[in-house]
Amino acid sequence: MKNKDLSVTSPELRVKSPDSPDDLIALLSKKVVGQSAAMKHIVPYVHMFQSGLSPEGRPAGVFLLLGLTGTGKTRTVEAIAEVLHGNAKNLLKIDCGEFQMEHEVAKLIGSPPGYLGHRETQPMLSQQQVDTVASPNCPLSLVLFDEIEKAAPSLTRLLLGILDRAKLRLGDNTTVDFEKSLIFFTSNLGAREMIREINPDIGFQGRLQRPSADLASRMEGIALAAVRKRFSPEFINRIDAVVTYHPLDSVSLATILDQNIAELQNHVNTRLGARCFHLEALPESLAFLLKKGTSEEYGARELKRTIHRELTQPLATLVAAGSIPPGSRVMVSLSQDQTSLVITAIAGGAAYKRRPLSILIVDDNKDLLLFLEQLMKKAGWEVLTAPSAEKAREVFARSTPSTVLLDYVLGTEDGVTLGLQIQLMAGYTDVIIMTGGELAPEEEMICRERDMPILRKPFLDVDVLNIIRSRSHKAAARSAS
Ligand SMILES: Nc1ncnc2c1ncn2[C@@H]1O[C@H](COP(=O)(O)OP(=O)(O)O)[C@@H](O)[C@H]1O
Ligand SMILES: [Mg+2]
Q1: What is the distance in A from the centroid of ligand 1 to the CA of 70?
Q2: DSSP code per residue over 293-333
Q3: Which of 264, 274, 391, 429 is buried most deeply by CB count within 10 Å?
């Protein structure tokens, strides 16, 4: 059983867990990018437990998470642990790869008294282990059987008892109770066929687009067929929800890249303390990492590996060599031949030129457009405007501003769709939507998932400035040059 040290406790975890299912779905969807459909399956079981309505005599929820490698299956369980318990490590994780042989299963449940080594074998699935991963905030234990397809058949038989009666009998004849547990199984069964299935769809165009509903249902079919081949109907029937994870599209990967760079900065701040510095990754370096880190086969894992190899390791070498003065700005750009990143430290006091921040404002209401244009110019921004979605795409392609402010109603088009198109062109653009009316719930969900805040009319000039400024520290890092 290994706990990966993937995430740090984030600030929102110190508050109590969110009350409404929608809040919890939104919070988890920020941590596990592009998989809100999966969260919608899981979250109701958490709420059922919290409201005391979980059925007795069985686990509070049993989930089978399917899909390609590196799409966030394991991360999902860690993210739930972060939200419920304040720490990604508060989960009992069984790496099924360690239990491929029948005799290894004894490590899980311990051997019967009298057997050789009985006293030494502390079962991994003891009541105490299950209880210690719950927390004072929340008595729900998360139990993860990772990569279940690797488990020996006797392990799957053992699990049947847990799923059926929420009980497991250990070698010493005591029982472990799983009534206050959510049980997760992950598997990438069918992955090879899935890749074959998406490949014809993935030309240059396909890679940029969200998986179509049709592709998503074909993937689900493949995953389920593979699961039916491997596991018995009794086992499958005891699962509350089978969830297939989507392959990650380029917008999701860009968001994950942003998160990883923010995490790296965080790490620099906490580990180096007074010797910390400020990382500024220029757009071309982000585009380079994204391009190199995109892989159908390994999903976000490839992106993380690429960031590690191209950025984190060279940066660590520079830090170790003392080449980065404390307090400096560390610019990450692209080499002339565009084959690697260049890391340049600019000492704290050194002069450097900063391009003004640029914003594209799109609204078919001329008066409001003029008002916003003047407001942002006064605030020192370089302002571009467009009266229609069509014009906006043209202007954006030409000037790639760091921020765009989009009215929801744009003739026959709408701001949310345009915002998504813009994120597809440049995933690191800050998109803000203005609206005078209500958005459809799906659109609200898209905005949350894609991190596009909604500015509701009527608003004051300070509202506009606040929302733009609150996001522009990110943009500032990118446009400094
Ligand atoms: N949807 C996602 N959102 C954010 N990070 C992700 C996502 N998918 C994968 N990752 C990152 O990639 C790595 C591998 O993800 P993991 O959840 O272990 O993949 P798997 O689907 O194979 O279980 C993790 O470090 C995780 O942080
Ligand atoms: Mg995994």
Answers
A1: 5
A2: T--TTTTHHHHHHHHIIIIIHHHHHHHHTT-S-TT-EEEEE
A3: 429
Mean pLDDT of 253-258: 94
- What number of helices (H) and strands (E) belong to the chain? 19, 17
Give the domain 358-479 fold: Rossmann fold (3.40.50)
Q: Where in the chain is the domain with CATH 3.40.50.2300?
A: 358-479
How many whole angstroms from 187 Cα to the centroid of ligand 1?
13
- DSSP per residue over 134-171, as a string? SBTTB-PEEEEEETGGGS-HHHHHHHHHHHHHSEEE-T
CB 184 within 8 A of CB 81: no
Mean of pLDDT values over 309-313? 97
Query: In angstroms, what CA-CA distances link 410 with 362, 418, 430?
Result: 8, 9, 19
Quick one: average pLDDT of 18-32?
85
Q: What is the pLDDT of residue 423?
A: 84
- DSSP assignment letter at 25: H
Mutate to test the pocket of ligand 1, among 7, 36, 75, 305 (most ligand atoms within 8 A of CB): 75
Give mean pLDDT, residues 392-401.
Answer: 89
Q: How confident is the model at residue 120 (pLDDT cuts 50, 70, 90)?
A: low
